[in-house]
Amino acid sequence: MDLIQIKIEKDSSIVNYIKIIRKFDHSLPVGAIKQRIEENDFVMGFDLEYYDVLEDMDGIDRKKIFRDMLGELCRTGARISIYQDGKMISMEILDHRLSFLEEISKQVERDIERELGYE
């Protein structure tokens, strides 16, 4: 598992942050998100190894959606801390990791196409 977790520093815009997070993950209760922000706890997590074949078939890239959510939080003024497997990382490191995973995915697709004779 390659778990990314975020913390959001408490400020007066918690409601805005909750809206953004709930757009990404409807299953997170509003009260739980609010409490986690207020207690400086991990607000949410995302497994970079997450894969759903139906989403893939529909062209949905949850990693990109997750990254876009982080960007939206930052643009809204959220001060976020990002942790990978419990260790704090920068947005830059996360972006490099996401880019690396995307390149691996493309290479696997190319290898499969080559083995099936589609090249």
What keywords describe this structure?
single chain; 119 residues; alpha+beta; Ribosomal Protein L30, Chain: A; 4-stranded antiparallel beta sheet; elongated
Can you characterise this structure?
There is one protein chain. With 119 residues, this protein is α+β, with helices and mostly antiparallel strands. The longest helix is centred in the C-terminal third of the chain and has 25 residues, at 91-115. The protein starts with a strand and ends with a helix. The protein has a single domain (3-90), classed as Ribosomal Protein L30, Chain: A (2-Layer Sandwich). A hairpin with a 2-residue loop joins strand 3 and strand 4 (87-89). The chain is 54% helix and 15% strand. Strands 2-1-3-4 form a four-stranded antiparallel sheet. It has five helices and four strands. The chain has helices at 14-24, 30-38, 53-57, 62-75, 91-115; strands at residues 3-8, 44-47, 80-84, 87-89.
